[in-house]
What we know:
This protein is of the alpha/beta class. The protein has three domains: 5-117, Rossmann fold (3-Layer(aba) Sandwich), CATH 3.40.50; 147-218; 227-391, Heat Shock Protein 90 (2-Layer Sandwich), CATH 3.30.565.10. 49% of the residues lie in helices and 18% in strands. It has a six-stranded mixed sheet with strand order 1-3-2-4-5-6, with helices on both faces.
Amino acid sequence: MKTTTEISTKRPAAKLLIVEDDNLSSMILERIFLNEPVSLLIAHTGEEAIRLATDQQPDLILLDVILPGMDGFEVASTLRKSVDNVPPIIFITAQREPNDIVKGFEAGGSDYITKPFQPLEVLARVRTHLRVRSLLNSQTKMIEQLTEANRSKNNFLGIAAHDLRSPLLSIRGLAELLNDDIYPTDKPEHLEMLQAILSGSDRMLHLINDLLDISRIEAGALTLLVKPGDPAAMLSRAVLINTGSARRKNISLKIAADDGESFPFDGERLQQVVENLLSNAIKFSPPGSTVEISAAVSDQHLTIRVRDQGPGIPENERHRLFQDFGRTSVQPTGGEPSTGLGLAICRKIVTAHEGTIDCRNLSGGGCEFSVSLPWRKDIIKENHAELRAHCG
């Protein structure tokens, strides 16, 4: 008896493996698929089925439950464990017992057909599963292409931003020297030009730094160094950095945090989040208003809140807040620049801490951004081990 045969139709488009020890049943299935655009592979034992499935990588398997040696359930289980991207498996059975059907699904089956064969039903089930597999394969290829395109985009952004940053810092440094009277000038128009250079370079430097952060984060290069830190001290540092911009708009900054608390977080990255939230609050608050920032540790969580007295966020635009380059119709009150990347970076840093970030409008006006981080001892251990590896 010939144990393995391959029968090709005129327009092979998919490989179909039939595993059937009964020659008559095998012949009936061959006739059913005679005019279908498939290439048929025939096996009569479970061992042959595993070999053909491994070597030929069929797109679908019709698998008889009762076989000599390994039964169909054992074959399906073996394939699920040993073969990558196992195709749909349709069990062939003469039994209609619910327990057998359930057992087939538990073994990794996608569907079943019963004997005696109903040709139209067999064709309908096979066509459906082949169509679904084709769509899934196309989707997988599309995801791979998009992933590669996104990786190329991140590489380009990182290289471009890095190469632009150095000459921009030189331009800004020279302008600061001129502005600080090291090379004095008594011409007002020169001072205006210097201020324009400094202002423009500040905007460009902010954008470049954001682009570098985004490219690092999306490339998976964001590594947290989590260790116990003092939230109050971190808030004070962030407030100090934003004091100048607050004074220029006569905005008061109020801090509420208990000194001496300890909580695990990446101090540099979380401070970046707080600085960004404070900067936004100042940017969108009217002159003479107050921005409040607080930190509290309770129930194994660190919660940071930043409140402003600005116009709030339109409800129909809230979904844009944490998207890359997401902007709302709300305009800065002092004409300050905005890249639309800051909150997206904040969200990614907070997510890396396995925390959450949110925003809500306050009933009395203004809005509140809140960050909540969980206590993560496992992160501390992982990052301390990584730190020792880098230093050792």
